[in-house]
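Researcher: We're teaching a course module on how sequence relates to structure. For the next exercise, students receive a sequence and then see the predicted structure as tokens, so they can try to spot secondary structure elements on their own. Here is the exercise chain.
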Amino acid sequence: MTTDAAAPAEPEHRLHPMSWLFVLVAQLKQFIVPLIALFFFGRRDEGGLWPLIGVGVLAIGSLWQYFTYRYAVAEDALVVRSGLLERSLRVIPFSRIHNVAVEQSVLHRVFGVAEVRLESAGGSKPEATMRVLTLADALELETLVRRRGRAGSASTRAPGPAMAVADDGVGPDQATHAAATTAPEPLLRMGTMDLLRLGVVSNRGMILVGAGVAAFSQTGGRLWSNLFERLGGTWETWYGANHWPIWQWLAGGLAMLAAILLVLRLLSLLLAVLQYYGFVLSRDGRRLTVERGLLTRWRTSASRRRIQAWTLTEGLLHRWLKQRTLEVDTAASQQEGQARTLHELAPIAPREDCDRLIGELLPQARWHALEWQSVPMRGWWRRMLSTLPWIVLVTVALSVRLGGWGLLALAWLPWAAVQARAEARRAGWTLGEELVAVREGWWQRYWRFAEVDKLQALRLTRSPLDRHFDTATLWLDTAGAGARSPQLCIRYLPYASADAVYRRLSSELARRPLRW
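Model: And here is the predicted structure for the students to work with:
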């Protein structure tokens, strides 16, 4: 809790009257499986009413949260009060809010409301979650955060739940009119063909398959054993009545593999449509906003200066379709599996559009004029060292099971060598006045770059092999990097070059202020 902010200048406001229903639904999602199991499989004479009692307790808690939750606008902060017996007061300065996420599910749309999350840098959870506000109030709150975070200090007035913002000496009515008439600048839109391309190049279908397997596994081991027994019996009956030659088995296996891949792509296409339908990236001053989603509509925004690092990705299917993906890491709370943080500026877009976005959002970096430096090829074989233990383990396991045929797994070694040489040939790095960037990968290519002002830590590491071959690896750390984000590092540089880059960056970081 921050105590140096001014007291609220206006009366406190409650959430939407139906907010308790959405809190109840969110809580029921966590207990829906045990409640259903208890209702259908519990003993009717004793435990049949326990699910209803549990739902009643959750409903009372939801109503309690509604009646004890308040929010108000202070001079330069948002004040949130909650609780009655155990009271909580949060004073959130507008300058601390790095990301604003507005979510609208199907149920939200029915009632004309939205859920708002306010996030700060590095937090494991949002600074405040307002479940729920009217859609007008949610968008007005987003506008307030954007304008107040940019202005720094101005008077704020909120005569009612729909808040009017005064900025730079402008009255509340004039500020509302200015916010309504200032149209954001669209930078990128995704159409139907873009959704088709995204469904083709992505492997999001495996997410649905994994979710289905996880849900099916909750039914217990008996159902699994019965299913496998039936499949085994059907297979033995069919195999006994049909004797195919080897070429028919191969053709059948290939056809089954093709069918599986087709189903996975169709699932990926379905998920791409659900998640990215109506995708629009827009810019309003220094703030970027992304809107997307078919059933659940997401609207998330963050200041341009909150972007810490950039990743440009190009897989094999991307290259065939002449597309790329542009992602960013922002200085806001990161939780795996949640899409509320601004992360994807371009889920899929032509190469020219990705380069244009980088040029517009990072004009001082001179992306098109970067002078890339290659990494020496003499250490190419070190890039395949991480795959050797897996090849050995797979070879041993297959040899125990199949005998001499298991040694065929060693055929992967030539491919690993080819891939390592190709990666070393393509690897590169560049260091300019405002930008540091690395280029890695061959089959799956990526460019990872960040502004020099956003670097938080430097590490120069040397393994025994590095000391033997007089090389080093330079690691560059930024805020907000996700667990699945590529590393920003320059690997296997000659030690003299790595040390020179390390000293130059250390000197630059010492004299420059860190910009969030």
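Model: If you want an answer key for the exercise: The radius of gyration is 28 Å. The first strand starts at residue 70 and ends at 73.
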